[in-house]
């Protein structure tokens, strides 16, 4: 989009915001299985002119089936962590053969999606400080959830 000569006079930040807004609108319309009248009403509320609304709706209608297939392949529910494994990795030297002696943790999250079963594991490497930060945030989230269920 940024390379399009017709758009060279528009501030790149504004252009990115417009692109994100259009993508969000299309995604939400597909997710909600919105019909053309609902999309038109929403775009009219955003003060778009009739010609642009008609053009948007025509393009949306042409690509609606492909969009629904794509959204269906993504799934409807977030991944669920079923297990966690970790191991300590100790880097003694780097690529330049300098001694580093840096410990790090390799963490693997076993995940599954209720829509489609299991997914590839999510793996990442982190330092002890990053792992402690993650554990702290998970404890905060658990406490927050516990407080919310007690209300």
UniProtKB/TrEMBL annotation:
Pfam families linked: COMM_domain, COMM_HN
List each copy of the COMM domain by range.
80-149
Lineage: superkingdom: Eukaryota
Name one process (GO BP) from the record.
Answer: sodium ion transport
UniProt-listed InterPro entries: COMM, COMMD3
Q: To which protein family does this belong?
A: Belongs to the COMM domain-containing protein 3 family.
Q: What is this protein called?
A: COMM domain-containing protein 3
Q: What is the lineage of its organism?
A: Eukaryota, Metazoa, Chordata, Craniata, Vertebrata
